[in-house]
């Protein structure tokens, strides 16, 4: 049997309505639906090459050999679903800081899903790829698609997947990622959300309000109401981080610079600049704005952060195959 190979690229996404907690840890089914924006700036390229001579999967991240049990388990799922039983050499290049709250796992597993199935000579629809990517990382289910994406909560493996949001918006939207700290975070997303679900007295309230936020932000998108859209995204983010402070043991992802960035955005709003912030499981703050406000926001942020720590992204595309 000849070696089979494919290379895919997937972009990160940033959740605007957060997923924070699983109702099924094995299938990675979320407690609530979520909405994200796929970004053009950050992406992962992954090559999968199957070979009958391999006795196990080999994984290289940015050129370094990794012993990744999570990835090995995911490849077992790929083999189970495709019926293609060879092991593979997997080479990933992350064009995004790994494990720093910039959704590197989302782009990683979305790219791996397409590369692994294509190399196995299986051609999945994007909905099928979304279901598969979810098994590696919940947020990866959204990186299969570009632009604004909704992850449908679902009740089982079949019904939990992402879909593109078809909205009539003419926003020239941008997201500024303020890289406060690119080192791996001390509390992983997986560990953090498990602690929150198990111990936060406010978790039931989170699920009900997150579902309301999801419906409200979809309405704001459909009405081209950028102010409501930004306010809902910012408030949803703050509620997620409040859960972490209410957990036992409590934890948080904030660094002092995170709070400075949030204050800068709030001060800009007081000056009638339409911008909002969001944070995922990491200290880096993302500023949501329109392109025509970009320069004034960057000028203000440059008083507090090095310019090379301010990364501007626009809406990005969905997963795609690359020429080997």
UniProtKB/TrEMBL annotation:
Keywords: ATP-binding, Lipid biosynthesis, Lipid metabolism, Lyase, Nucleotide-binding. Residues 10-162 form the Diphosphomevalonate decarboxylase-like N-terminal domain. GO terms for cellular component: cytosol. It holds the Pfam family MVD-like_N. It comes from the Bacteria. Its EC number is 4.1.1.33. Transmembrane segments: none annotated. The keyword Lipid metabolism applies. One of its GO terms (molecular function) is diphosphomevalonate decarboxylase activity. Residues 176-308 form the Mvd1 C-terminal domain. GO terms for biological process: isopentenyl diphosphate biosynthetic process, mevalonate pathway. Belongs to the diphosphomevalonate decarboxylase family. This is diphosphomevalonate decarboxylase. It comes from Ligilactobacillus pobuzihii.
């Amino acid at each position: 049997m000849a070696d089979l190979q494919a290379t895919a690229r997937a972009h990160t996404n940033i959740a605007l309505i957060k997923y924070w907690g699983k109702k099924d840890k094995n299938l990675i089914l979320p407690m609530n639906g979520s909405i994200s924006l796929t970004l053009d700036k950050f992406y992962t390229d992954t090559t999968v090459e199957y070979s009958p001579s391999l006795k196990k999967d080999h994984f290289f991240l940015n050129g370094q050999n990794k012993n990744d049990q999570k990835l090995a388990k995911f490849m077992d799922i790929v083999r189970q679903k495709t019926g293609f039983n060879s092991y593979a050499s997997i080479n990933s290049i992350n064009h995004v800081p790994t494990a720093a709250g910039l959704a590197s796992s989302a782009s990683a597993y979305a790219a791996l899903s397409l590369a692994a199935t294509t190399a196995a000579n299986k051609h999945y629809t994007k909905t099928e790829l979304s279901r598969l990517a979810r098994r590696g990382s919940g947020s990866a289910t959204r990186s299969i698609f570009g632009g604004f994406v909704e992850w449908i909560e679902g009740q089982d493996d079949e019904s939990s997947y992402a879909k593109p949001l078809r909205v009539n918006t003419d926003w020239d939207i941008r997201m500024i990622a303020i890289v406060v700290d690119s080192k791996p975070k001390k509390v992983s997303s997986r560990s953090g959300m498990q602690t929150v679900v198990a111990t936060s007295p406010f978790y039931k309230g989170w699920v009900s309000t997150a579902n309301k936020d999801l419906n409200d932000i979809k309405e704001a998108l459909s009405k081209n109401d950028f102010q409501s859209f930004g306010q809902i995204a910012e408030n949803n983010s703050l509620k997620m981080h409040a859960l972490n402070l209410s957990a036992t043991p409590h934890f948080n992802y904030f660094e002092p610079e995170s709070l400075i960035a949030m204050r800068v955005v709030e001060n800009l709003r007081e000056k009638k600049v339409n911008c909002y912030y969001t944070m995922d499981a990491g200290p880096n703050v993302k500023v949501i704005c329109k392109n025509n406000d970009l320069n004034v926001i960057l000028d203000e942020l440059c008083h507090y952060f090095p310019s090379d720590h301010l990364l501007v992204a626009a809406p990005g595309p969905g997963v795609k195959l690359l020429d080997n």
